[in-house]
Write a structure and sequence with these properties.
The structure holds 2 protein chains of 2 kinds. By secondary structure, chain A is an alpha+beta fold. Chain A is built from 14 helices and 8 strands. Classes of the chains: A alpha+beta, B alpha+beta.
Chain lengths: 420, 375
């Protein structure tokens, strides 16, 4: 019988939990014991807090944890992207210094990729990394940085060589966020929340050993981070559930989850809250209006067919068949659904849609939908980029003609306001 | 099974697609659509006996193969893709009405000839008012001396001018709405039946107007109690049509995409323009979403889902919008040549248009969906 056999894994984790789990522990104290056992990140290498188990076994381990109410390692937020990137590209020094504290939740992380001058074109970053003596000196600005004001460490993509082509001159660093050269300012969004930050670097320092891979490999490393970001996007909401059990360790975990998830609290509204539509239409009597019924039906059709199309993609994946084109459409479709949902909520709400907050329906939830939906078609890859991806990768249409990849980056035209 | 097909089903689809590509190229579609009948008995019977198409959804005890709507949906999707000119949908709808309304004895008497393809059939519900619901049925059935007779007119009847057997929905004199509905069967050559082919915008889909001047008819099930069988038959009809439609939409989408890749303007393929690429991406979204709805509804039918009335309406509304939108884009992507008779795009454009309206348009089905929505 293989050591990766489900029954064996289940028995092992169960025995370990029986011998070790105790809700009287403090959160960090417990997680420190947990990660030494390898059961905190079973799919990681044995050498680094794991057990070399297939990813599929995580579900079995999670079930056993849930059965006894045992708390797991810190999973929410950018720290998981940091861990995945460091595991893939980091040196032993990086793994030694960062992985343990990622799992215990002692350190929080942020991702310093997007800039005011490079959104969809992320490889066009112009934040500078210059060598001064033995150190790297960072100058420039990042934006859309979730939780930067709380983070201990940042994953930084910066330009270290301006004389080579766009993708070749980037370096990838781990940056200490708690230093004088780093200033974090909240970025207020059109919906009034400030879930993100702008981060300014003025001669911020990075020690040379905190570069991951070499100058020129930064884009490759960033691709790893982004791949895990996309993969994790669906799981974001599922992390948001702390246990509702009583006891100190659970309270500590709930506080951690609440802090990490705080920036995401308007995300359900961003997706359009299709779940509220029929209830609201009944409350307001608009359910009897034939035009409203048409609009609601259009929305329900879009929302249901989106759900079923995602299920088709997942079914193909589960059966080990190549995904058809249906697997690449979800992001674009979610924008269509969100926009139609905002239209419908507006029609249903009528004059009350002029208001927000306590003066408006559902204590401001409807108002928040109307001003949050525009984020859906921009964040995580704009609709335009999604259409490029679908047409090039799925439909095999010609790639965009590139005008900036075969010349030194310093010769590439940039925004008139950008610095270099 | 709502989200994937089995390997056997995929294999069946692939074989069918190859056969229909060989047997129903657009040259053949154009030849048949110009004939009075719109199809040819010899060619259709040969194809049908090779592939067993009309037998698919008919149970084994009535001479069929006893497959479900999943398989029937595949057949229709592939026929929609190839625009096969044959009385398949019409015969399948009649077979469904017979299964839903008929007695055991009637099923045994009527279904085997439809299953083996020796007889064709159709379902005559709609009248001159164009409605697809009970309120639109005015044709009256009266019994005298043990003989039932039908008086009235049916219109927009699929293959109505050539069908060997016609399943007719009428009502008992003096009834209204759902009460008093009755299915009958009438032979295509019955005395007093006047059949006229209508001049259809979509030449690949022939429709007829049937005038019944006191035509002798055989009851199918108990006269006056057909409401439930009628509802179920129409739900099955729109699910079948939706599956046929997504096949046509996908074919149009693919053809338009291929054309943009070979068409050069301004020194580059027009497929390299972002405006074309984004339109092609949106077309893929439209078609795949409509497919999901059509597949889901067909599976719901096989699994006996309570929500069938809403799911059927959803699938037809989704297919109506997606197919027509795809057709509009497809003509546009072809440019001038897409507006010519010689280019094949208009064949599917017209099928998109006729399918959009047949058995109720998207507005009507969205309203039906809202009435039955349980989620």
């Amino acid at each position: 019988m293989s050591e990766h056999d489900e029954a064996t894994v289940r028995a092992e984790v169960r025995a370990w939990l029986e011998a070790n789990w105790n809700p009287e522990y403090g959160l960090i104290e417990w997680r420190t014991r947990l990660i030494e056992s390898g059961w905190g990140a079973p799919h990681w290498p044995r050498q680094w807090y794991g057990r070399d188990l297939p990813v599929a076994m995580n579900a079995v381990v999670d079930e056993e944890f849930a059965r006894v109410g045992a708390v797991g390692v810190a999973k929410a937020g950018i720290r998981t992207l940091a861990a995945a990137t460091i595991l893939a590209h980091g040196t032993d020094l990086h793994k030694e210094k960062f992985l343990r504290r990622i799992l215990t939740g002692e350190d929080t992380w942020c991702q310093l990729f997007s800039e005011p001058g490079s959104g969809s074109d992320m490889a066009g970053a112009v934040t500078r990394a210059d060598r001064r003596g033995n150190q790297w000196v960072i100058n420039g600005q990042k934006v859309w940085t979730t939780s930067a004001h709380k983070a201990h460490w940042g994953l930084l993509l910066a330009r270290a060589n301006w004389d080579v082509a766009k993708h070749k001159g980037l370096a990838y660093f781990v940056l200490d966020m708690k230093q004088p050269g780093v200033q974090v300012h909240p970025l207020k969004q059109m919906n009034g929340h400030a879930s993100f930050n702008q981060v300014f670097f003025t001669d911020a320092i990075v020690e040379p050993e905190m570069m991951i891979c070499d100058v020129g490999d930064g884009w490759t490393v960033a691709t790893t981070t982004l791949m895990h970001e996309r993969r994790g996007a669906d799981g974001l909401r599922s992390w948001a559930t702390g246990s509702d059990r009583k006891g100190r360790i659970y309270e500590e975990e709930r506080a951690e989850v609440a802090t990490t998830m705080e920036p995401y609290k308007w995300y359900p509204q961003r997706a359009g809250r299709v779940d509220l539509v029929l209830e609201r239409a009944r409350e307001t009597g608009k359910i009897d209006d034939p035009i409203m019924r048409q609009e609601i039906a259009r929305l329900l059709i879009m929302s249901k067919t989106a759900e079923w199309t995602a299920r088709r993609a997942r079914a193909a994946q589960e059966q080990g068949r190549p995904q058809g084109p249906e697997g690449s459409l979800g992001k674009l479709v979610s924008s269509n659904v969100a926009r139609q949902a905002a239209r419908v909520h507006t029609y249903i709400t009528g004059a009350d849609a002029l208001l927000r907050g306590k003066d408006s329906p559902m204590g401001g939830v409807i108002a928040e939908i109307l001003v949050s939906v525009p984020a859906t078609s921009i964040a995580g890859g704009t609709d335009e980029i999604q259409r490029n991806i679908i047409s090039e990768r799925v439909l095999k249409m010609p790639k965009e003609i590139s005008v900036d990849t075969d010349k030194p980056f310093r010769d590439v035209p940039r925004n008139i306001v950008s610095s270099s | 099974m709502r989200f994937s097909f089995t390997p056997e089903q995929e294999e069946f689809r692939a074989g069918l697609r190859r056969a229909l590509e060989a047997r129903s190229p657009t040259k053949e579609v154009r030849r048949l659509m110009a004939t009075e009948a719109g199809w040819e008995r010899d060619g259709w019977q040969r194809l049908n006996s090779e592939l067993g198409l009309t037998a698919i959804q008919i149970p084994e005890e009535y001479g069929g193969q006893g497959f479900g709507f999943g398989e029937l949906g595949i057949v229709l999707e592939e026929m929609g893709r190839s625009l096969l000119c044959a009385p398949f949908l019409s015969t399948a709808l009649a077979a469904m009405a017979i299964q839903n309304a008929g007695s055991e004895e009637q099923k045994r008497a009527l279904l085997p000839a439809l299953a083996d393809g020796s007889r064709t059939a159709t379902l005559a519900v709609t009248e001159d008012n164009g409605r697809n619901d009970a309120a639109g049925i005015a044709m009256t059935a009266t019994q005298s001396g043990g003989v039932w007779r039908l008086v009235g007119t049916k219109s927009f009847v699929l293959d109505g001018h050539t069908a060997d057997l016609i399943v007719v929905l009428a009502r008992l004199a003096g009834t209204r709405g759902d009460s008093g509905l009755a299915f009958f069967t009438v032979a295509g050559d019955a005395a007093g039946l006047d059949r006229r082919r209508l001049d259809t915008m979509d030449e690949t889909r022939k429709l007829a107007r049937l005038q019944f001047a006191s035509v002798e008819a055989s009851p199918l099930g108990e006269p006056g109690k057909a409401a439930a069988a009628f509802d179920r038959t129409m739900q099955q009809a729109v699910i079948c049509l939706a599956n046929e439609m997504v096949g046509g939409a996908d074919r149009l989408r693919q053809d338009a995409l291929d054309y943009t890749k070979m068409r050069m303007q301004f020194g580059r393929s027009i497929a390299s323009f972002q405006v074309t690429k984004h339109k092609a991406a949106d077309m893929l979204v439209d078609v795949e979403m409509a497919k999901s709805a059509a597949y889901y509804a067909a599976a719901a039918l096989d699994e006996g889902d309570d929500d069938l009335p809403a799911l059927a309406a959803l699938a037809k509304a989704a297919a109506s919008e997606a197919y027509l939108q795809t057709a509009i884009h497809a003509v546009q992507m072809h440019g001038g040549i897409g507006f010519t008779w010689d280019n094949d795009t208009h064949l599917w454009f017209k099928r998109a248009k006729s399918s959009e309206i047949l058995f109720g348009d998207a507005n009507w089905h969205r309203e039906q969906m809202m009435r039955h929505w349980k989620h």
